[in-house]
Amino acid sequence: MNTNLKISNVTKIYPGCVANDNVSLEFNSGKIYALLGENGAGKSTLVKILSGIIIPDEGKIYLNENNLNLNSPSDAKKNDIGMVFQHFNLFETLSVFENLIIDSDEQRESLREKIDLIMKKYNFPIDLDIPVLNLSAGQKQKVEIIRCLIRNPKVLIMDEPTSVLTEQETSELFLSLKKFSEEGILIIYITHKLKEVMQLCDEVAVMRRGKLVSVSEIKNENIESLANKMVGQNLKTIKKKKAKTSSDQLIKITNLNFTSEDPFETNLMDINFSVNRGECLGIAGISGNGQSELFQVLSGEIISEKKSIEFNNNYIGDLNPQERREYLMAFSPEDRLEQAAIPQMKIFENVALNNFKSSNFFNNGLINENKIKEHSKKIISDFNVNTDNIELKSQFLSGGNLQKLIIGRELITSPDLLICFNPTWGLDVGAINYIHETLIKINEQNKSIILISTDTDELLKLSDKISVIHKGKLSKIMNAEVVTSEKLGILMGGAN
Amino acid sequence: MIIDINFVGLIIASIMASAVPLILASCGELITERSGVLNLGVEGMMIIGAISGFALMTVTGSLIVAVFGAMLAGVLISTIFAFLTQTLITNHVATGLALTIFGIGISAMIGKNFVGIPGKEFPVLFESLKDTIPLISPILFGHSIVFYFAFALPFMTNYFLKKTKIGLIVRAVGDSPESASNQGINVRLVRYACILYGGAMSGLAGAYLSMIYTPQWIENMTGGRGWIALALVVFSTWNPIKILIGAMIFGGLTIIQFHMQAIGVRIPVQFLTALPYIVTIIVLVVISRDSRKIRLSTPSSLGKSFHKDN
Fold first, then answer.
1. Separation in Å, CA of B300 to nearest CA in chain A
2. pTM
3. Beta bridge partners of A466
4. Which chain B positions have a beta carbon within 8 Å of A101's beta carbon?
């Protein structure tokens, strides 16, 4: 049976931003459609409209010529539209089976049989009786997919499904999606990753700033043409020059362990590595494998044994972040608005938060506002932050500008080592390029970087050495020139 | 010294009786909190239940009207809380505190005319069986219907949360209201229902105090039991069976310290009165100290407002 889904003249306006500007699209079953765009292009808003979470200001949705009234997520379900969310919509403390039965009208036994059939058919082996928080990201996604499949959907929407998956899990997912498509389910695949579009999809619609830019068949496109459509300008590609390897060791981690009381955290086991001057060590891994714990241990948010971290010939394992900064370390945490900056405070106040001893930001306990403001202006101009108002509250900066401000704040002390955790997470291509250039420059000045990232392409581009973290353990450290993303993917999945 | 075995039975029965209001209010609050709502107004809802039950009993003369009227009064006052926190998205803590202050004040006002009026006798069940078996009979028989209901309630609550679909939905809403909403569950409706249920149970707990336990109206007669009920919920790590244990320890120590004072044990009175509070908390902390289980049973969204925006 054929399914036809039509979006007609959909508009959704938020204060200060047009999320969807008169978007019209048509989809037919049997094909896999890509909806491509940068963060903030309006893809997520559009699919949330399709799944009933957001109600559009204007426009209509038709499924097989019937006008749908999607006022709530249950309306979408009733009309056989299923959605797998980017941020999983699962109940962490409930068991897998409880998560699945909660929106089903079936009896326990018959539902269990149905789930068993689905799991066998698509090769999704998952223990139904353990709490969801014990599952890996890939397994959680499978639970979400099963939840949709139980309802025999006509349309399946996948919102950025691969952001938490390994290379292998991604190819498994693609196989399943192709199978679903052959079985007549209409698949809409939302992403900003061009490679995946080329690999998986038949047709691609590109969105930019809320507007639909183009609809075309994949066979008429290539990665460059799609990238230019997505960004709206020609992108220059940056490449790292091979740095001359120094043998001057800067930081050495020896037998570092961390055991957490919290079941949501990962324990770190026997971490050993060292970084030389001018080097970038990349740490790859799927999120939730101990990266945030490792970052906290390295930055001093979690104190460890004194001798486990040796920096510039000093043992600093028991120092807090402020004291570590005095030794010329700098940190850029993952969550810009929660950990790196205080959203309600002004730009210059956030700059003052990183008060190192030589800064003279404070005299006898009083704030030296002029000094801080002068310093903030310098950061803004040096690091290309797109504002001239240092009195602006940080929450009003875009992600890219905020990240530039934070990196600028950290670099102004000209630290010997910068530790970043997902520095380009959620940024648009322009800002990503800028951050990458900045990081490359740091290495060129013979300073070092520890780059913890879930983005494999970023790691391969910037690192000299790469290691993979899996369940709190580091793999052996590899030369980045000989590592492939496939090899990283295998290690990220836990194999040797 | 010969200890009368029936006397021991009576002491145990009196301990259980003093635990009844705590069990009722805690089990109600447990459901409310499992849905992610922190209602600090338990004390206020209890005292409203107490005065409503007593007043209705005196005015209408009907015990059934009085008991259900007290529950309804609990529902009504918790509706104010629900409207403020769920519809107007006010802060749970501040609203709950206001509710308690409001409840204590208004109950004192209504209660002025009922001070000194004697209560009615509340019928008990299985009275004739009271003398059949030594020790056991006084514990099991000759209590009010509310008493039996209270001791069944933790088990029913446990069954409801673990085995029924609606219980699952309540837990899901408390775990992640955003996900629940995206799954098409009406978060606000579920939370309203849980708040109102908590109100009904607190009302019943209050009515038990003023109509059965000490059948009379005294201003501020709940005497902090609402706060103890709240503490029981937290220290039991949202487990109804542990609430039962905690309420029994608290009731037991309260009764025993009375007897100790009466016998004239040489321990300062202030220490004896404080004992139930300290021991109950220590015991509950010890039996629930598994941090993994705490994480799994704590409603993740507890006390956080949920606002669905379009």
1. 9
2. 0.77
3. A282, A478
4. 165, 168
